[in-house]
């Protein structure tokens, strides 16, 4: 078999292994998924009327659902990838990687299996959170088929970028608890973005902090695609952040994995 065929075969095997682990131990995935769902319900039904006033123009609860959901979809991606960091850290500390190193398998397949499995779980989680949003009133009547495809592509690219970062975090963590803590910025950053309130409603000194981070341009781009709002320069900024983080995470993860004797 060619080197490419071996890589595909071994990566598929590792992907199946990771999906089986996720199916047998669903508690972490469910816990991470519940965070954006609970935030969605909390901010819509408890704070919805008050928060919608910040949108201006006589906005009501339904307008706030439309504003909130795109940000929470990307927050779902961030929270789901924490499970990837924990899973990678477990593999590194429990000895299975040392055994894989003695076997005739493609070296990169271990990480590729984690990444593909995590991206698949992210997309499934996004669909579930999106279904909850639709059930409580979210509608995207202005989006065309092309815009829906672009939105799906953006979410997938964003999931790929954050997954490679999470893999790196898992590789440098001494245990699962540390991996979970190291990956917490992936949940914290959406809280200081435009997920819940527009940038212009934030204090002037804080607006640059919220604007110049990876989540805000991705959220504004997804919001524009689904709701027909202005995207502006956020589109290329979102793609640049995704590509940059994916490349950084890939080289960080592979260099750490190839150089770590554990």
From TrEMBL:
<keyword id="KW-1133">Transmembrane helix</keyword>
<feature type="transmembrane region" description="Helical">
    <location>
        <begin position="148"/>
        <end position="172"/>
    </location>
</feature>
<dbReference type="Pfam" id="PF01061">
    <property type="entry name" value="ABC2_membrane"/>
</dbReference>
<dbReference type="InterPro" id="IPR013525">
    <property type="entry name" value="ABC2_TM"/>
</dbReference>
<feature type="transmembrane region" description="Helical">
    <location>
        <begin position="25"/>
        <end position="47"/>
    </location>
</feature>
<feature type="transmembrane region" description="Helical">
    <location>
        <begin position="110"/>
        <end position="136"/>
    </location>
</feature>
<feature type="transmembrane region" description="Helical">
    <location>
        <begin position="67"/>
        <end position="89"/>
    </location>
</feature>
<keyword id="KW-1003">Cell membrane</keyword>
<keyword id="KW-0813">Transport</keyword>
<feature type="transmembrane region" description="Helical">
    <location>
        <begin position="235"/>
        <end position="253"/>
    </location>
</feature>
<comment type="similarity">
    <text>Belongs to the ABC-2 integral membrane protein family.</text>
</comment>
<feature type="transmembrane region" description="Helical">
    <location>
        <begin position="184"/>
        <end position="206"/>
    </location>
</feature>
<keyword id="KW-0046">Antibiotic resistance</keyword>
<keyword id="KW-0472">Membrane</keyword>
<protein>
    <recommendedName>
        <fullName>Transport permease protein</fullName>
    </recommendedName>
</protein>
<dbReference type="InterPro" id="IPR051784">
    <property type="entry name" value="Nod_factor_ABC_transporter"/>
</dbReference>
<dbReference type="InterPro" id="IPR047817">
    <property type="entry name" value="ABC2_TM_bact-type"/>
</dbReference>
<feature type="domain" description="ABC transmembrane type-2">
    <location>
        <begin position="27"/>
        <end position="260"/>
    </location>
</feature>
<dbReference type="InterPro" id="IPR000412">
    <property type="entry name" value="ABC_2_transport"/>
</dbReference>
<keyword id="KW-0812">Transmembrane</keyword>
